[in-house]
What we know:
Layout (H helix, E strand, L loop, with lengths): L1 H31 L3 H15 L24 H8 L4
Helix pairs in contact: 1-2
Amino acid sequence: MAELQDAAAAKVELTLESLIEEAAGIQEKATKAGQYSAAIAALIAKAKLSGRWVERAEQKNSNVNYVISDQPMTEEEWVAECVTEH
């Protein structure tokens, strides 16, 4: 069973390696052709495949103030606060 797992892991590793090599070839050809956006896309693909690319999304919204009230706004209060005149 361990031999089968090792063989499968080696096959995955070779596939990953071949994908990285293919992306490198694409990057090289794109660079030579002056297709820099394609070259960068291939570079990013290589980085993702190798685990070197980490996507992070930072969410900062310091302009949000939450107000909790026991009493709902009246229609007049809502209009005064939320509706702007054009």
